[in-house]
Structure formats: C-alpha cells, structure tokens
UniProtKB/TrEMBL annotation:
Organism (species): Wickerhamomyces anomalus (strain ATCC 58044 / CBS 1984 / NCYC 433 / NRRL Y-366-8) (Yeast)
Descriptive protein name: Sec1-like protein
Any one biological process term the GO annotation gives: vesicle-mediated transport
Taxonomic superkingdom: Eukaryota
Family: Belongs to the STXBP/unc-18/SEC1 family.
Length: 592
C-alpha cells in the first residue's frame, strides 16, 4: 500500500461516513487506488461533489476532502452550514492537501468555522511514476515562491526527501550541488532535518548509520560505490524551458490538454497509464514527430501480425498465435489510444488558423532565440501580433518574456508600450498579472537585477542553443524536446556528473553567470579519494527542481541518464523530485 493511500486512510478512519470530494482530486485518488476500494477501506457510504449543494446526508458524519486553496473556504463554510442546519449534532471532518494548510486553518479559525469541526487534517499526497523515477508533490503554490517569497515549497520538498531517506537508510547523500536562493533554503532546511533525525537515533542506530557512511567509499563494503549526489535547482534559473513550445510527446500533450496525473480530457477521459501502457512508455520522451512515426510503424506491425493469423493453416502455429492474442489486443488498444491523441493534437494545430498561428509563433521564438531579428524588430513584430488580435494573451506574454530573457531585459519605454497595448487589447483586468511578471523576474527592465546576468554568456558557456542537424531517430544532444534549445537542467547534469571523479560544477563558474548562492559541498568524507572510481550501477543522482518541471525537461533528463550509461557503462540512476509538472499556462495562471 502506497504512503499517500496510507496517509489518506489514516485521516478518513473506518467510521461510517459520507464523503464530499473536490472533483479535481478524483484523478489523484484514482491514481493511487480504485475508488471502489477506497470506499470499502474507509467505510464510505455516500459520495458527493464539493461544488454541489448538500441538502441531504443519510449519515450523521461527513468528511470533506478538498484542496487547501483559500478560495474553497466560502464554499466549505456554506456546506458546513447546510449540514448543521439539518442536524446540529452532525460530525464534520475536513481533510485538505498540504499546499496552504496552515493558512487554511488560520482562515477557518478567523471566520469561526474551525470550532464546528471534529478534526482538520492534511493529506500527504505525492505522485510517483516508477517508469521515469519521478516524484511530484502535487502542490500548486508557485506564486508563494517568487511573489510572496515564502519557503513553503523548499520545506515540503526537503521534508519529503528526508522522510524518503529515513525509510531507505542505505541511501546516503554524499554530495550536494545547489544553485539559487530557494535552492540554498532547501539545502539548509534539508541538512537541519537530517541532523535532527541523526541526533534522535539510539547509540546502536548511530553506529549502523556510521557504518553505512564509511562503507560508501570502501572497497569491500556492500555499500561501496553507492554514492548519491543531490543536485538542487530552481525554476527562475531557466524560465525558457517553460516559455518555449514543448516538442516532446508528453510535453506537447500537456501544453494542449493539460496532463493531470496521466489523465487528459478529449471527448471523454483518456488515460496515459505510463506504468502499464508500453506504448506511452516508449513514446513519452520522444520528439512528437518521431513518436508519430513510431506509432505508424507499430500499427503496420500489428496489421502484419493479424494478416499472418488469417493465412495460418498449421494448427500448432494457430495455437501459438492465439496464445499471443490477448497481448496483441492490448497493444492494439494502446496504439489506437495514442493514435487518437496524436491525431487530435495534429488536427488542433493544423486547422488553417491555428496552424498558421502556431507555426508563426514557433518560428518567431526561433528568431528571438537565435537573434535572427534585431531587438527593435522583435518589439515591433510583437506589437503587430497584439494588434492583429488573432493570438491568445499567453502567447504574447511568452514572446515578451522570451525576448526579455534573451536580450537581458526590455527597454523601459518598450515595456510601457507593450503594457499599454496589452491592456487596451485584452483588458485592464490583466494589469496585476503584468506587474507580477516583473516581480517574479519573468520580465525585467534593463538595468534592474536579473537572475541570468547575461544570456549570451550563459549560452556560450553551457551551449543552451543548438542548430545542429541531429538525427531525430538517434539524437546526440538533448535538443529534441524543444526546437533548438537545450534545458539548463540537462546541460548542468552533463557538465556535473563524471564517471571517475566526484561530481562538481566548480569549473562552470556559475556565480559569474547566474544570481543566487552556489553550493558545492561534500557531506560524506572520502578519506581514500576513490569515490568517483568506485561508482557502481547502484549509485544515484537525486535531482530536485523547485518551482515545477516541464515534461520536456524530464525527457531531456532521461536522455542524459541513458547517454551516461551508453558512454561510460555505468547505470547511474536518476531520481527527479519536484513540486509539480508545469507548462507556460500554469506559470502565467499562478501569477494572476
């Protein structure tokens, strides 16, 4: 049984109850367990949607399972009053997600609702995808990171990692590489949590812990060579990977349909089950065009196998084929499912107007990224697109933000002009959004501090842009997930991890390229200097991305992992931890 399910069942308990659930959480529940099983385990008698009025409840106990967004409080207050007005003795329990739990509790107390509750608990929800070894905490508070500058996300990520290490004692962090203000907060919190845990151990447990640590760099210990690097980065170091159009299979699906834990909405709910769907598992980290070719080949291969069945005369061969029939039928269903998804996306992007707009934006992004247009021409063209009124606001904001990053800020008069054009075309309601994009550093004015000190210098050092005509079926660079751009996180990994020495990025001189504290710290002493040489297949890299990760970035991370194994013969395992998967829409929505 998974930890998120254990946590939920503990809060729900086994007393008979009605469950009122926020509809958006149903995807998460169905991911961790079939809902019918949850009803049975938690003794749930009736289920209602949170947004629907509660006029009747057949039990004398109701539990609300909702997100801790403060916008839910008025609805919750109304639902509680509906229950109490029918039965003043009704028992009410509330379970919320962790995002804004403390603020949520404070607001309930403030409006006098908290006293009506029998209990208020938080749900430790996270989503683990074993096929990519990625974990998302499923929290949506990106605005707390850069708008309100609170350490909520760094703390929750650090706490999750600490708990993970406690239940996996043989996994020891030997080295930390960290860049950015929030990354340094994470590192500080994480180290304090680890110290608190180690101080709480008994003398015998401390002895065992010490033995594991010393064995990491020995030559005969079971743990020898199982070092674990911790690399911590944050979103504002590379906003471009969110702003540029994603071209990986999973990334493009997310941009068009918003993946919610392997689920998207087409004409009906469609599931992308990466654990049991062999086709999606093959496609999700491919370039979208290559994925479509792969699907076509799979469909042809399936048809050939069915044709063979029709031509078989030998009974033994027919029996062997029939034994494979269930497997073929499942594969056929998966191919059909993904063919439908890819065709829907192509139809959406290739309708006359949308295709023209999409291709125009993609080409324009390239012109900005590779400086094919002068800065003045870029600003003029963006104004033309605004006045053309055929493009969505977020498409325009993408272009403005990309221009700001690549050109080291906007001239103040250009920002004022663009600001006025947007408010006139899209409405004054977006005034605060434009102000917030300045606050979080997505758009900067020339002369003001910027996280990227100079994009040309950063690009020159890490080679983030690439116009290499790579073989799309066998790429040599992780440039397949975006057109001509390689995410900072994958370049950092390529430049940090080595087969025969400890990981380091001292040679990158990141302080001259990016604002924010740089940490390069050894946590477990290598007394004999053999750490890098002793690396085994069980050595690991834990990558923490604070502020969300795109699916296309994950695709490039997995590419680097495969590339390292092919190049050096070491199966170093990458584990990715983030607060959520995001796209450009999520980024802008979080600042509304």
């Amino acid at each position: 049984m998974s930890e998120p399910l254990n946590s939920l069942l503990k809060s729900l308990n086994t007393h008979p109850k009605s469950l009122v659930i926020e509809k958006s959480l149903s995807t998460a529940i169905n991911f961790i367990t079939p809902f019918s099983k949850l009803k049975e385990l938690a003794n749930i008698q009736n289920v209602y949607w949170f947004n629907d009025p509660l006029t009747v409840s057949s039990s004398n106990s109701t539990t609300f399972l909702i997100k801790s967004n403060l916008s839910n409080i008025p609805i919750l207050s109304q639902r509680i009053h509906e229950l109490i007005s029918n039965d003043p003795t009704h028992k009410i329990n509330v379970i919320t997600t962790l995002d804004y739990f403390k603020s949520f509790k404070h607001e309930l107390n403030k409006i006098g609702i908290y006293g009506e509750l029998q209990s208020l608990t938080s749900w430790n929800l996270y989503i683990h995808d074993p096929t990519s070894n990625s974990i998302q905490l499923y929290i949506s508070e990106l605005n707390s990171l850069y708008l309100y500058k609170t350490p909520n996300i760094p703390y929750k990520l650090a706490n999750w990692l600490n708990e993970y290490l406690i239940i996996n004692p043989n996994l020891q962090i030997t080295h930390i590489l960290s860049k950015g203000l929030n990354s340094s907060k994470f590192t500080s919190i994480f180290k304090n949590l680890r110290n608190d845990y180690k101080n709480s151990l008994s003398p015998l447990e401390k002895k065992l812990e010490s033995r594991i640590e010393k064995g990491l760099y020995g030559s005969s210990s079971n743990n020898s060579g199982k070092q674990t690097d911790l690399i911590v980065l944050e979103r504002n170091l590379d906003f471009l990977s969110v702003l540029l159009n994603q071209l990986s299979y999973s990334g493009l699906i997310d941009e068009v349909y918003d993946i919610d834990i392997n689920t998207i909405k087409l004409d009906s709910t469609t599931y992308l089950d990466s654990e049991n769907d062999s086709i999606y598992n093959s496609l999700k980290f491919m370039n979208f065009g290559i994925a479509c070719d792969y699907l076509n080949n799979e469909a042809k291969s399936l048809q050939l196998q069915y044709d063979e069945l029709n031509n078989l005369n030998d009974l033994s061969h027919i029996k062997n084929f029939v034994d494979k029939l269930n497997e073929l039928e499942l594969l056929k269903k998966q191919v059909s499912n993904h063919t439908k998804i890819s065709e829907e996306i192509l139809n959406k992007l290739q309708t006359s107007d949308e295709s023209s707009n999409y291709n125009t934006l993609l080409e324009f992004q390239q012109d900005i990224l590779f400086a094919n247009l002068s800065y003045s021409n870029i600003i003029s063209k963006i104004i033309e697109l605004i006045n053309y009124q055929e493009y969505q606001l977020y498409d325009i904001l993408r272009l403005i933000s990309i221009t700001s990053i690549v050109n080291n800020g906007l001239r103040e008069r250009d920002y004022i002009t663009l600001n006025n054009e947007i408010l006139e075309s899209f409405g004054f309601k977006y005034f605060q959004l434009l102000q917030n994009l300045i606050k979080i550093g997505l758009i900067t004015i020339r002369g003001d501090p910027s996280i990227i000190k100079n994009f040309n210098n950063l690009n020159s050092k890490l080679k983030l842009t690439s116009d290499i005509d790579d073989d799309p079926n066998n790429p040599s660079e992780p440039s397949f997930a975006y057109r001509g751009y390689i995410p900072l996180i994958s370049r950092i990994l390529q430049n940090s991890i080595h087969p025969n020495k400890r990981s380091s990025w001292s040679h990158l001189d990141l302080n001259s390229l990016l604002l924010g504290k740089t940490i390069d710290e050894e946590l477990t002493q290598d007394n004999i200097g053999l750490g890098g040489l002793l690396q085994k297949n069980d050595s690991m890299v834990i990558i923490v991305m604070i502020g969300g990760l795109t699916y296309s970035e994950l695709a490039t991370i997995k590419f680097v992992e495969r590339q390292f194994k092919e190049k050096y013969g070491i199966n170093k395992k990458f584990m990715v931890l983030t607060d959520s998967f995001i796209n450009a829409k999520d980024l802008f929505d979080s600042n509304l």
